[in-house]
Specification:
By secondary structure, the chain is α+β, with helices and mostly antiparallel strands. It has 56 helices and 33 strands. The strands form nine sheets. It has a five-stranded antiparallel beta sheet with strand order 26-27-28-29-33. β19 (1220-1223) and β20 (1226-1229) form a beta hairpin. α40 (727-735) runs antiparallel to α41. The chain is elongated, with a radius of gyration of 46 Å. The relative contact order is 0.03.
């Protein structure tokens, strides 16, 4: 073993030592102590080298994460040896190790000491929870060794306990042992400290005696020695030589008088001594030399690293164990104990505060690492408010500021400063200290902000973020250029760089940088909020003085200013109202000049790619900063400028804010609310601000464009920027948000408020006025009830903003506040009514039925009902009704009631009403007769006494004999009819007849044009009077229209062509089916000669089928994958195809004797021909449109919008005149390539297509006017539908192509037809399969529909069906789902089709040139269309028998082919 020991001493390779250990450890007499000691020596050498690299002392991550760290590499090698680690932790730390092996002569203490030393050396890379898990009695042994064990085992055990107690579960389990050990450790520290002080004093006395003969010849040089060991008298004499101006530079501010109290002031006799080294260091940093030499506690400028090491990184020696290391290990154990409240009493009893103050005094310790551990212990104790206040009272802050920098102890100071700032009471006492102390505190923290370790910068940032609420700290921060230093912390980070430097960072560096951004944004938020509070307070005081009042007292500088979110919003609103438009607000102006606004917007945008827990907080803080800064008009204009972000060079600030509000950046409701608040402060700012009505001009033209703007111009620019970046769509989507349920109501309220501010823009208001949210009452529906009942208060805000928004969009200005409050009360009332559960007594209903049967002389039925239901007999006296009768307002004497009967005296006889009437004894008087005095001008209101019968009045006066007092029920007798008289029973004032009459009356009151004479009401169908028609209007009946054509050519009167279209395009008859069992069809198109049907499939093939025989004529391989578009030119010699997944995505083919590729468009995802002269091709790739020449294939234009709408299904298309191009919602000049206008994005998918009339653009459900760029109307039927116009251009085929959509599953398997003139719906045809494409022939006589099953890749269910337009099915077509029978029927159907085409051509071809069609959009026309549609469905079916072409409605087979004629209007919202 001796030879092994010698060999181990010479070995430096850890792997070789471990291999040797594995070879010999199984021997019974194996001694592991030499192996453990040698490994510990090697580890301690590498640990010393690692600490000289000055790592962050708070970074407890494994050193092996750094690939260049040899210490971490050594740890990896050891940890890979599982047998060695199990022996080390599980066996060698047992005090009975040798006894268990049967060797009772050896003591285990030496082995335990070596093992504890090695485990302590390995602790930086060990997982503590694993080390102390499943170890039998290890923690108890450590407690025993730490209390009574010999050195150095005692200290090593203390260090291991310190690591174990970092785990809260372990600390809680050993609470009693900790309560016993902690006071002992404090006593041990006092003993060690006392012994060290005595040794130091003896050393100093010895040095004085040794060098006393030189004291008279030369001055004291104690300040130049590496370690300042001179006596206090010599140090005082040395410090007295410090120049006076240097001391003033360090601690500026007024000095107190000699007799004044020195509380809060650094001790006069050693103040210069403490800081003279840092004075010189600060001067050197100002001159550009930030070397460590300037930070030593001496005057020397040429000190070596050996002299500076103890001041910067300290010393840490495990063997032989020094007093400094012993104290460090004890302090590490006490640090986690300091957080527990129950141990705080021991800290005060053992005077832990005095102990710590001694340790942080560098004159006493001269060891930065020992001071750092004491500062960590201090930070744990500062969590207790009582201890923090006591620390400030004992001038502990002064001691902290005396710690030299740079050093690891200064990094510990940063943590302590943060904990002090966290305690509000302690911070108030700090703010009461003299000004020069506050100034030095801020200076020290700012140095930490720039020059400390990463954790020091983090703690310093959090210190400022917490202490900004104290105005005195904020003022010192501004006085020392703190905002620039805080900004520089994030502006220099690689993760925010536009270059690819961020890709070179590892995960740890990226995480640390993101945490820095998080803390800086939080500090900036607090900084600007407190500045805002001070600014608003100043403005309010000025305003109060101008009004002659007395301002409220301001908050003292030493008191914290606390603000919640609602108060900050109010402050921003007040600032926008009171702050002059061009006023200079220094914090915001400085932040703007530094480039802070674009930087924060960049942080918000880039955070989309980050993945760490503080992302939402970072973005929310950045948005809160922008919200405060938006008070300045310069910031609002910066929101409209472009922001450079890595993925999008054309991003605009408003676009980033809208993305955050929509939840695209961070799906967090707090972030959404913060982004909405920023938008609200921008769009809801006052139009006319103080000093913002007159422009100001500067010298340069560039500055003039900004400075000369008025407040109204800036606001208009913001409005247009929000609108052009699809703000209307984003905000409207947020109005209907329902998740998360706890935040939906507040998000709705904020979005509605933002829309309210945006509605002040004329362009935005015009668009909103056409949207279904306002025209179809969707907003009122949302206002009825909250998403969550507990959020009623937020919903009230939403209702308030919703009512104001309705008034703003409609243009109606509320006359007074009471009207608004009444409207709000109505909404609440409607909400209560909607939630009311209607309950009634069923026996009362049966009594009404019994009464009704008696009135109809059904006495036997009434008696049976009374017997079976057990009804009580009717009372002799009737009870009056409490609900009011129907009151028809606006009736004139010439217009009697609609359902009444006029008697000979002119009185109107109404059906019985719920109100009782005076009874008469005339048995022949009909029940329910009410005499109305038509000449009476007095209008009765609820609550007025009912006029009684006036004696002496002639019956010709037609007196009103009706009780109208609703509040005071009156019991009256009412005579029954003859049948009732015979039974001897009385009836009630409430009757079944009265209830039904009132119900129908209420329906009739809703009619737009009510009629006096109405047919019998249907109780099972809602009633509606027909709309008024002109006498020249064409009849709804087709036969009458044809007959009337002789009088009113060409269509039998006004709206005749439209009625013909409704008739024709609501009837489709399947005549032929094209199928290929091996392929799935995807698209189709008719050939120009109409003889062939071209069909594309998923494999990229193009198949030609004969239309008449359904035989496949040819197959061409056009693409390698999915073919989704086919377009031939008019002459049929050219063909465009577009495919997916593999280039070339689009091709132009020459069709003739051969089918050859003419040009390929590698990157164009979709192509189509021009419209008027097919000499150009427009292709689409993303948001870019490219125009090519057909003859040469050369690129003519490339059109990329400055601001993209990013439609998911953008397809560039030509205007019918070929003068314009529409791509990605942007209108272009097809000749010059100039961008003309960008239309607002109101849907996510479809960019739009031109109407054949050349005046409108249809984009999903929106219809835009090309001439004015206004939104003409919205057609909900076209929502998310791809539109195809008929050849004549007067009918729209709409197909919903989204297979995955499940919101409207019916439209997935159906296509719709609409009138292209007024967008009224004609029919919805369900084909029972998903529709992949639709095309129409050039005569509009047939359409082809690609129908696939819902499962994609099922070829047997993929077909293309050919339909005849305007024909209903015959009896022969019943059961034609079987394809063989369909083939027979198709042949028969085609024989008589020639004669039918003549009539169809007469109906269809004249539609586009009809006279009397008004293209102007009007809501009344839309409603009329719905009525005509209803009439068409009824009347046309009646005379279908007389027209063999259209067939009979009885022959319709609903099982195979269901047709749902849509009698409703298009639902358009135009007015």
């Amino acid at each position: 073993m001796a030879n092994d020991t010698v060999n181990l001493t010479e070995m430096s390779d850890v792997s070789a030592i471990l291999r040797l250990f594995e070879e010999h450890h199984v021997a019974p007499t194996f001694d592991p102590v030499p192996y453990l000691s040698r490994l510990a020596e090697l580890l301690e050498t590498e640990t010393e080298n690692y600490l000289k690299m000055d790592p962050d002392p708070f970074d407890d991550r494994n050193p092996s994460r750094n690939p260049n760290c040899s210490f971490g590499h050594m740890l990896k090698i050891i940890f890979k040896k599982e047998i060695f680690m199990q022996k080390l932790v599980g066996d060698y730390l047992r005090d009975t190790y040798w006894t268990r092996l049967g060797i009772s002569t050896r003591d285990s203490r030496e082995l335990n000491t070596a093992a504890a030393r090695l485990v302590l050396d390995l602790m930086p890379g060990l997982e503590v929870s694993v080390v102390f898990q499943d170890t039998e009695g290890l923690i108890n042994r450590l407690f025993s060794w730490a209390e009574k064990g010999p050195e150095p085992l005692q200290s090593y055990a203390t260090g291991l306990l310190a690591a174990a107690m970092e785990l809260q579960d372990l600390a809680a389990n050993f609470r009693e042992l900790n309560a016993h050990l902690a006071p002992l450790m404090l006593k041990r520290l006092w003993e060690i400290q006392k012994r060290c002080a005595e040794e130091k004093k003896n050393d100093e006395l010895g040095k004085i005696k040794r060098f006393s003969k030189f004291s008279s010849d030369q001055p004291s040089t104690s300040s130049k020695t590496p370690k300042n060991t001179a006596s206090s008298k010599s140090r005082a004499s040395s410090s007295s030589k410090v120049p006076k101006d240097e001391d003033a530079e360090l601690m500026p501010g007024p000095e107190p008088a000699d007799g004044a109290s020195d509380k809060g002031k650094l001790p006069k006799n050693n103040k210069a001594k403490k800081f003279q080294g840092r004075i010189k260091g600060s001067k050197e940093r100002k001159s550009g030399n930030a070397s460590l030499n300037g930070s030593a506690m001496n005057d020397s400028s040429n000190s070596s690293w050996a002299e500076m090491e103890s001041y910067v990184i300290g010393t840490y020696q495990m063997h032989p164990l020094t007093d400094s290391t012993r104290q460090i290990l004890i302090l590490r154990y006490l640090t986690p104990m300091g957080e527990y409240q129950e141990l705080l009493v021991h800290m005060f009893e053992q005077k832990a505060l005095d102990l710590i103050l001694n340790y942080i005094d560098f004159d006493e310790t001269q060891d930065s690492r020992l001071s750092f551990e004491a500062l960590k212990y201090l930070g744990a104790l500062l969590c207790h408010k009582k201890f923090a206040i006591e620390f400030i009272h004992h001038q502990g802050l002064h001691r902290l500021l005396e710690i030299p920098r740079p050093s690891i102890a200064a990094t510990g100071v940063a943590m302590c400063l943060y904990y002090i700032a966290y305690c509000e009471d302690a911070m108030e006492r700090v703010c009461l200290l003299p000004d020069h102390v506050i100034q030095e505190l801020v200076r020290y923290a700012l140095w930490l902000l720039e020059c400390s370790h990463e954790s020091g910068r983090c703690h310093a940032t959090m210190f400022f973020g917490t202490s900004f609420q104290f105005r005195i700290i904020l003022e010192q921060f501004d006085a020392q250029d703190g905002l620039r230093r805080l900004y520089n912390m994030i502006s220099t980070l690689s993760i925010l760089s536009m270059e690819d430097a961020s890709d070179l960072l590892d995960d740890d560096e990226s995480h640390a940088a993101r945490q820095t951004v998080r803390h800086v944004c939080a500090a900036l938020k607090r900084y600007f909020e407190i500045h805002l509070a001070g600014k608003v307070e100043h403005l309010q005081r000025i305003r109060v003085r101008e009004m002659g009042g007395s301002p409220h007292p301001s908050t003292p500088p030493y008191k914290a200013i606390k603000l919640n979110a609602d108060q900050i919003i109010d402050l921003i609103t007040t600032a926008q109202e009171l702050l002059p438009f061009r006023a200079s607000w220094s914090p915001v102006n400085e932040f703007v000049s530094l480039g802070g606004i674009p930087l924060l917007l960049q942080v918000i945008a880039i955070s989309y790619l980050w993945n760490f827990t503080g992302r939402a907080e970072t973005v929310r803080s950045a948005l809160d900063v922008l919200a405060v800064c938006s008070v300045s008009f310069r910031v609002q204009m910066l929101f409209c400028d472009r922001i450079q972000i890595p993925d999008d060079a054309n991003a605009v600030g408003i676009n980033i804010l809208l993305g955050a509000a929509e939840g695209d950046i961070v799906a967090d409701p707090e972030v959404q609310r913060a982004a909405l608040c920023v938008l609200i402060h921008c769009v809801c700012a006052p139009v006319h601000r103080v000093g913002g009505s007159v422009g100001r001009f500067n010298g340069s033209a560039k500055r003039r464009s900004v400075a000369s703007r008025t407040s109204e111009e800036v606001l208009n620019q913001v409005w247009e920027c929000v609108r052009s970046h699809n703000g209307i769509m984003v905000l409207m989507d947020l109005l209907s948000v329902k998740t998360p349920i706890t935040d939906a109501d507040s998000i709705r309220a904020l979005a509605c408020k933002a829309l309210l501010g945006l509605a002040r823009s004329e362009n935005a208001r015009q668009i909103m006025g056409k949207l279904p949210l306002f025209t179809s009452g969707q907003l009122q529906v949302l206002m009825r009830e909250p998403v969550l009942q507990d959020k009623r208060q937020e919903h009230v805000k939403f209702q308030k903003f919703g009512l104001e928004l309705l008034e703003q969009v409609s243009g109606r200005i509320k006359s007074n506040v009471n009207e608004f409050e009444l409207s709000l009360a109505k909404i609440h009332k409607a909400d209560v009514v909607a939630q009311t559960r209607i309950q009634f007594n069923e026996k009362q209903l049966l009594q009404l039925i019994h009464q009704h049967l008696l009135s109809k002389n059904m006495v036997e039925s009434a008696s049976i009902l009374m017997k079976e239901a057990g009804l009580p007999p009717l009372p002799l006296k009737q009870a009056s009704s409490n609900f009011p009768p129907y009151r028809a307002t606006g009736n004139t004497p010439s217009t009697p009631s609609r359902t009444g009967r006029v008697n000979s005296q002119g009185a109107v006889a109404l059906p019985s009403t719920p109100v009782a009437v005076p009874s008469t004894s005339t048995p022949t008087q009909q029940m329910g007769i009410i005499k109305v005095n038509l000449s009476s001008s007095r209008r009765l209101r609820p609550g007025m006494p009912s006029p009684g019968p006036q004696p002496g009045v002639n019956s010709q006066h037609r007196a009103l004999q009706k009780v109208t007092n609703w509040d005071s029920p009156t019991t009256m007798n009412k005579s029954l009819g003859a049948a009732n008289v015979s039974t001897g029973e009385t009836s009630r004032g409430v009757s079944l007849d009265a209830i039904v009459t009132e119900y129908l009356m209420n329906q009739h009151a809703l009619c737009k044009t009510p009629m006096v004479t109405c047919p019998q009401f249907d109780l099972f169908q809602p009633h509606k009077c027909p709309d008024a028609k002109s006498k020249n209007t064409a009849p709804a009946n087709f036969a009458l229209r044809v007959q009337k054509r002789a009088i009113h050519p060409r269509f039998g009167g006004l709206d005749g062509a439209r009625m013909d279209r409704k008739l024709v395009y609501s009837r489709f008859r399947p005549v032929r089916t094209f199928r290929n069992d091996s392929e799935t069809f995807t698209c189709c198109a008719f050939s120009p000669c109409e003889q062939f049907l071209m069909i594309g499939n998923q494999t990229g093939e193009l198949k030609l089928y004969n239309v008449n025989t359904a035989v496949e004529e040819a197959t061409y391989q056009c693409h390698e994958n999915y073919l989704f578009n086919i377009e031939p030119n008019w002459t049929g010699d050219l063909l465009l195809t577009s495919g997916m997944y593999r280039p070339p995505y689009s091709c132009l083919w020459a069709v003739g004797d051969f089918f050859d590729m003419k040009y390929s468009f590698e990157e164009e995802e979709y192509v189509e021909f021009s419209k008027t002269v097919q000499d150009k091709i427009v292709g689409t790739k993303g948001e870019t449109a490219t125009v090519y020449d057909v003859a040469t294939g050369k690129k003519l234009l490339s059109l990329t919008p400055t601001t993209s709408n990013n439609y998911s299904k953008n397809r560039a298309t030509f205007h019918p005149s070929d003068e314009l191009i529409l791509s990605d919602g942007v209108l272009w000049d097809a000749v010059s390539g100039t961008q003309i206008h960008k239309f607002d994005k109101l849907n996510q998918s479809l960019s739009g297509t031109f109407h054949p009339n050349g005046l409108e653009i249809i984009s999903s459900s929106e219809v835009w006017d090309i001439r004015t760029y206004h939104l003409l109307r919205t057609v909900p039927t076209l929502d998310q539908c791809q539109v195809t116009f008929s050849a004549s251009g007067d009918v729209i085929y709409a197909v919903h192509l989204e297979e995955e959509s499940r919101e409207e599953p019916m439209y997935d398997s159906s296509f719709k037809t609409l009138d292209a003139g007024d967008y009224s719906s004609i029919a919805t045809i369900d084909v029972k399969r998903c529709i992949y494409g639709l095309c129409s022939n050039k005569y509009d006589t047939q359409i082809a529909v690609v129908e696939n099953s819902r499962e994609f890749n099922t070829p047997s269910e993929s077909i293309v069906r050919l339909y005849d337009v305007g024909r209903l099915r015959d009896d022969e077509d019943v059961g034609s789902e079987v394809e063989e029978e369909e083939g027979d029927d198709d042949g028969g159907a085609s024989e008589n089709s020639d004669d039918d085409l003549e009539m169809l051509d007469e109906l269809v071809n004249g539609g586009g040139d009809e006279d009397g069609i008004d293209v102007d959009i009007d809501s009344s026309d839309s409603s009329d269309d719905g009525q005509f549609g209803d009439s068409d469905d009824d009347d046309d079916d009646d005379d279908d028998d007389s027209n063999s072409y259209f067939g009979s409605s009885d022959e319709f087979d609903e099982e195979l082919f269901s047709l749902n004629a849509d009698s409703n209007s298009s639902g358009s919202s135009s007015t």
